[in-house]
Amino acid sequence: MDQPIIRIQNLRKSFGTLTVIDGLNFDVMKGEKLALIGPSGSGKTTILRILMTLEDISGGRIEVCGEPLYHMQRSGAEVPADEAHLHKMRRHIGMVFQHFNLFPHKSVLQNITLAPMLTKGEARAVAEKRARELLDMVGLSDKADYMPSQLSGGQKQRVAIARALALQPQIMLFDEVTSALDPELVEEVLEVMKRLAAETDMTMLLVTHEMGFAHDFADRVLFFDKGRIVEQGPPAQIFTAPQEDRTKSFLRKIIAAGQRV
Ligand SMILES: Nc1ncnc2c1ncn2[C@@H]1O[C@H](COP(=O)(O)OP(=O)(O)OP(=O)(O)O)[C@@H](O)[C@H]1O
């Protein structure tokens, strides 16, 4: 039987006295496309940041590709593993952020080749060949020599996607990748992601406030509230026949605000 590529068991995360994730359990299977939805502050971004090892955890266990992300201390507390282990584990995962975080003084091509050359010691010719293929995939093959400041927000975000893919991760995390974009630029980014979802067997986790996109993109939707999963299932079930009152009222508000679900 297939093993989960991500396994989250009894995960807890607090910031000081604020508990943000409270005993969370879920598995993600290889190739699965998962959408994490829920009210603001429910802990969705924190989960992605923990998987990316940008946040430590307060308790529980996470496995990525069959290995623990964190090592257990003798005291029983989970702590970040040593840098070498983290470095290895980070290679499994790529992340695209709300604010593109491109290097402003590097060209589009350099933005994409930098990490493979520096962290994997890839030869420039190899890194550039793949970067050009990825630019082609995101529809920006004519922008390789542009600087980020010469691009629109949608183009910047497509470069950010290409950059994350350049390290050939098994898992991609997308954190509200369209919420900083002008509305007319949203669609071009969503199109790239839909294509990626349809054409690759990469495992993808998406945090989004765009319910229509979550509907079209995901195999499974997790609805979060207060750091816990309230309800989960295929999009058709969550969006058209939710079972839990909290899911129903969340979706009612979204629809009242004029969104497609
Ligand atoms: N570094 C931090 N220090 C203190 N509190 C934090 C920190 N990061 C997140 N939080 C708090 O944790 C809670 C969950 O935040 P998170 O960003 O994960 O929620 P979210 O569901 O992604 O929300 P949104 O949909 O608005 O992005 C919020 O109350 C937030 O203020």
UniProtKB/TrEMBL annotation:
<dbReference type="InterPro" id="IPR017871">
    <property type="entry name" value="ABC_transporter-like_CS"/>
</dbReference>
<dbReference type="InterPro" id="IPR050086">
    <property type="entry name" value="MetN_ABC_transporter-like"/>
</dbReference>
<keyword id="KW-0029">Amino-acid transport</keyword>
<comment type="similarity">
    <text>Belongs to the ABC transporter superfamily.</text>
</comment>
<keyword id="KW-0813">Transport</keyword>
<dbReference type="GO" id="GO:0005524">
    <property type="term" value="F:ATP binding"/>
</dbReference>
<feature type="domain" description="ABC transporter">
    <location>
        <begin position="6"/>
        <end position="251"/>
    </location>
</feature>
<keyword id="KW-1003">Cell membrane</keyword>
<dbReference type="InterPro" id="IPR003593">
    <property type="entry name" value="AAA+_ATPase"/>
</dbReference>
<dbReference type="GO" id="GO:0015424">
    <property type="term" value="F:ABC-type amino acid transporter activity"/>
</dbReference>
<dbReference type="InterPro" id="IPR030679">
    <property type="entry name" value="ABC_ATPase_HisP-typ"/>
</dbReference>
<keyword id="KW-0067">ATP-binding</keyword>
<dbReference type="InterPro" id="IPR027417">
    <property type="entry name" value="P-loop_NTPase"/>
</dbReference>
<keyword id="KW-0547">Nucleotide-binding</keyword>
<dbReference type="GO" id="GO:0005886">
    <property type="term" value="C:plasma membrane"/>
</dbReference>
<dbReference type="GO" id="GO:0016887">
    <property type="term" value="F:ATP hydrolysis activity"/>
</dbReference>
<dbReference type="InterPro" id="IPR003439">
    <property type="entry name" value="ABC_transporter-like_ATP-bd"/>
</dbReference>
<protein>
    <submittedName>
        <fullName>Hydroxyectoine ABC transporter ATP-binding protein / ectoine ABC transporter ATP-binding protein</fullName>
    </submittedName>
</protein>
<dbReference type="Pfam" id="PF00005">
    <property type="entry name" value="ABC_tran"/>
</dbReference>
<keyword id="KW-0472">Membrane</keyword>
<dbReference type="InterPro" id="IPR014343">
    <property type="entry name" value="Ectoine_EhuA"/>
</dbReference>
